[in-house]
């Protein structure tokens, strides 16, 4: 029975989707060690930000195929370890955009009008109208750091509120900035000139402590800072000091370097204008339903053998591409598997050459499929589309891509793989014929025309009378049935390649006898 484990609160609609195809177990708040001890039973894991999916947990799994993050940030998943293990990681990049952007706007308004503290004061029976005079957002300058989905929506709403919006994002073009009505600025100016600064970027080694004491000192003393993105982007000790010393006028923080917020956090000792919420950015009914459905559908599809929409760790392999390239991917994988058996030994380089119609397609998926085939004899079930590039890389196999725009020999173009390694260079070319059938069209530059079959024998021999007959009778007398035979040669009576499709695998003893036949220089059994 397929089993899915859920370790964070997930909307029921997502659970219902998973229940169609799997047994769904809930272990909310499970410890790391308990998770590591039970993960071996599960095919899929569904989480939010509360579960840390560490390398140890991933390596304790044995049949885990997919980790679904019902939300955006995957910084709580060791994606590298998952990729190495061949586990797909998917998220929901857009499901909570509006929720997080609206929480940001709510934080900005709450800060400006002292809403939380005015509420507490009023509940205590006080009537402190003078104490809680605020600021308008209208005509104030907002600096948005990170102009992705959430940053862009915040900018849109802020523009509608009459704010002047500037932004910093090294990966956003001037055209895109104009489109979302944001004036691009450098980071220093943004902090120095803004009345409000809001962060909407991921936490990475480069962005950690992006807001430190130097940055805070550079801000206006009337400025307010909002972080509904990720903990760790702000040095919390420095922020506490900056607020206590009135270096800035306020902050609203939803995310923390350690969550849940620890009781010794310096932020809990701040007595000035500081609003804290417990990572609520995505906590709306709508967003929770969106992300749960989005991710559960992807988990269900992957468990059914279909592709995921938003995989984090297989770049370039969107479902549309996978669908349109199905026969091409199958050809590339088959050829990778074939050439690995013809090459034998250690391979240092794979050259992938696309010709004719193949040039029109994205090459990355074809390279990944070729590598998957190439490594599957060595790694068995462990190799998949997720980890093929990484596994090739860690084995020192470099990949060179080559596009040949010349008029193709075959109407549908061709794909050629060449390996360079311990046993010299080997090449295989293939094409897809009009009937959609895969064909191997050359082996080691010898022209052939073979449909790949489960068992094959590829020999090298001198082109002379009698060889084909000898080989045929050897196989026949050992009860190996030949389904088809093809000989490829470049010149008469020179070197030739023979490709036999056979119904059964070749016994080792028979292979030894074949190699001893006068004129046969090499014989490679192939299983596809
Ligand atoms: N508080 C919450 O509950 C909540 C909810 C959803 C998302 N988030 C977080 O909000 C953040 C933004 O999410 P998103 O969906 O907009 O992501 P996104 O990928 O659409 O946008 C992130 C943007 O950050 C930019 N960026 C990366 N490095 C940068 C740098 N050094 N300086 C400036 N910009 C940089 C990227 O170019 C990108 O445009 C993420 O960290 C996400 O995890 C939090
Ligand atoms: O990255 C995200 O999607 C947000 O941080 C939301 O996290 P949550 O799913 O734990 O609410």
Automatic annotation (TrEMBL):
Pfam families in alphabetical order: 2-Hacid_dh, 2-Hacid_dh_C, ACT, PGDH_inter
Entry's family note: Belongs to the D-isomer specific 2-hydroxyacid dehydrogenase family.
Record key words, sorted: Amino-acid biosynthesis, NAD, Oxidoreductase, Serine biosynthesis
Reaction(s) the record says it catalyses: (2R)-3-phosphoglycerate + NAD(+) = 3-phosphooxypyruvate + NADH + H(+); (R)-2-hydroxyglutarate + NAD(+) = 2-oxoglutarate + NADH + H(+)
EC top class named in words: oxidoreductase
Presence of keyword Oxidoreductase: yes
ACT domain: residues covered: 456-528
A GO MF term: NAD binding
InterPro entries the record matches: ACT-like_dom_sf, ACT_dom, ASB_dom_sf, D-2-hydroxyacid_DH, D-isomer_2_OHA_DH_cat_dom, D-isomer_DH_CS1, D-isomer_DH_NAD-bd, NAD(P)-bd_dom_sf
EC number: 1.1.1.95
The protein, known as: D-3-phosphoglycerate dehydrogenase
Biological or metabolic pathway of the protein: Amino-acid biosynthesis; L-serine biosynthesis; L-serine from 3-phospho-D-glycerate: step 1/3
Entry keyword annotation includes GTP-binding: no
